[in-house]
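ok so for the tutorial part 2 we go from a plain amino acid sequence to predicted structure tokens. step 1 is just haveing the sequence, like this:
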Amino acid sequence: MEASIPPGDIGFIGVGAMGRPMLGHLVERFSPQKHIYIYDVVPSLVQDTCKDNPQAVSPANSPKEIAERCRTIFTMVPEGPDSRTVYLDPSTGLLSTPNPNPSTLYIDCSTIDLSSSRAIASAVHSTHPSSSYYDAPVSGGVIGAQKGTLSFFLGCSDTDPKLPTLESLLSCMGSTIIPCGAPTYGLAAKLSNNYMSGLLAILVSEAFQLGMSAGLSPPTLHKVFKSGTGQSTIADKFCPVPGVVREAPSSRDYQGGFRVQLMRKDVGLAVAMGKEGGVELGFAERGLEVYEKACEDERCRGRDNRVVYRHLGGKEDWEGREEWERNGYEENEKRT
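step 2 — the prediction. this is what the tokens look like for a chain of 336 residues:
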């Protein structure tokens, strides 16, 4: 599918926990044919990323400079105001250049509010009419970004003429690409997914505590949930109980993964989307309250969102944990 890749170099804005490994897969795929220019509001992230790939990656001083150099531009920033600044700032934004590259392809992988995405899309179409802007938020967390197995939810139809190009680019970083129908639909799909994922983290944490209070071990409960109707990725791969699943952030003191502050943001955006659409969300108020309090909890702030297990009082030094970890996860799984 190389023929469908746009000519020119690639820009990438936002090289944090998600963006940096995503960028790494682009380097593997396109270097040395294409050079990649990067920008982040944290200079040290740019410096470290460039040191990792000195021949393939160079820093840019602003989003505007990236727009002047590149024909394909990815953005991966935390919130709607960040995306608005990256695209719309009159001095340094992507759209501030008077001489943009023709037919630039903008792909925003950020999870932001729908109104910000609409404003950016409108600005792209009015100021750079030959260019295209797509919302393409991701699911899969840091682990998925590192492994190149992310899911992309695209704000376009399955008949969009640029879909083959988008698939060629995004398949470097992900294993699943779903056209969701129209602009902002990718974001709506992602917020719906994260609303469910965020509340599941709370429910799974409580379910483990429930079973453990009756004497069941976390590994046994993990196997039960994996085999029963309560099965979910949150219980299986992102188990909130430390020490049960080797690759789960919980087993690394909840380091890495999808930060609790970001989940609070996404649940809040989902609640706002529900109000806009006239949908009554029965668990929204309690779920949002849990995340807001977890973000205020010094033991939880900055950690993976499954740290709600800790915030809710879950037992981390459960009986048998040391032996379970010492014997090896894989061998244990065979015996349980």
